[in-house]
Amino acid sequence: MMIKKLILMALLFTGISVKAQHNPNDQINSDNWDIIGGVDFKIVKDTEMQAIFTADIKKHAGKPFELEGYIVPIKDGMKQSKFMLSTLPINQCFYCGKNGVPIMVLVEMAEPIKFTYKTVVIKGTLKLNGGNAMDNPPISLIGAKAI
Question: Is-contact 67 121, C-beta < 8 A?
Fold first, then answer.
């Protein structure tokens, strides 16, 4: 549960200038990640944060959406059915150095996928969660499949 909270917090603070050292060649850049990265956050109170979704991401909600990224497991195991997908590999420090916390989305697979340190391409239905972003990731790919 603690790792899930840490990953969620990393997702929420993508705009904070906490910096990480990494190989720039490992960073995944795409138009779809740019759409995800456009989401901003508003602190409502100490225990509540709301996602502010752009018109660009809203037009993709409920529709198929594809992302290439790195698996960040939420639970132990070689087969992953629910995980975070990141623009940076898990083996690179998210909380030190000079590069920022990577953008992440929650992925819920239709069938489990084998964990890998290489990038994966995932396609699922884009779901936006307007609830408290401190409790649930605001962006998910549900019913996802590896391509």
Answer: yes
Cα 49 from Cα 79, distance rounded (Å)? 31
Instruction: Round to whole Å and give the CA distance between 24 and 26.
Output: 5
- Can you read off the two tokens belonging to residue 49? 């944060």
Q: Are 114 and 36 in contact (CB under 8 A)?
A: no
- In this predicted structure, what is the pLDDT of residue 92? 64
Intervals of the chain under pLDDT 70: 1-24, 92-102
Give me the pLDDT at residue 15, please: 40
H helix runs in the chain, sequence order: 2-12, 31-37, 55-58
Q: What pLDDT score does 94 carry?
A: 52
- Position 139, amino acid: I
39 vs 33, 103, 116, 127, CA distance in Å?
A: 11, 10, 27, 13
For residue 49, give every residue at least 6 positions away whose Cβ sits within 8 Å of its Cβ, in sequence order, or none. 12, 41, 42, 43, 132, 133, 134
Supply the pTM of this predicted model.
0.79
Length of the chain: 147
Residues 105/61, Cβ–Cβ less than 8 Å: no
